[in-house]
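Async update (no meeting this week)

Hi team, since we skipped the sync, here's where things stand on the single-chain job. The sequence we agreed to prioritize is pasted below, unchanged from the tracker. I ran it this morning and attached the output directly underneath so nobody has to dig for it. Comments welcome in thread, and please keep replies under the output.
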Amino acid sequence: MLGCTIAALANLASAQSTDSSGAAAPAAGTTSSGATAGSTAGSTTSGSTDPFVQRREENKQAKDEYKQKTKAAKEDYKAAKKAAKEDYKAAKKESRSELKASGATSAATQRMDGREMESSGK
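Output:
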């Protein structure tokens, strides 16, 4: 039991040192437990052989990726909404200036002035 613990700690230490150096991963070869260094390449930095730890790390990685995607989508949505709002304001300003240039008044302005009521006979 003590030997397994020491082997696991040695495996963890070698996995951490190969992850930090980068180039030492192919030279690591086989560990004392019989697993190759390439088998832990799919997992994250801990290099644990415990399936629950691997699952937790994979879930964390998937959650982080999802958060990044939703954040990017939200930023895109906000930018599109801002652009649409600016386009709407510009179109509204242009239509107002055209209306003023033509000398006509809008229906809302006529209602506020009371012209519509006078013309309808009320």
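Quick observations from my side:
DSSP finds four helices and no strands in the chain.
The CA atoms of residues 7 and 32 lie 6 Å apart.
Reply here if anything looks off.
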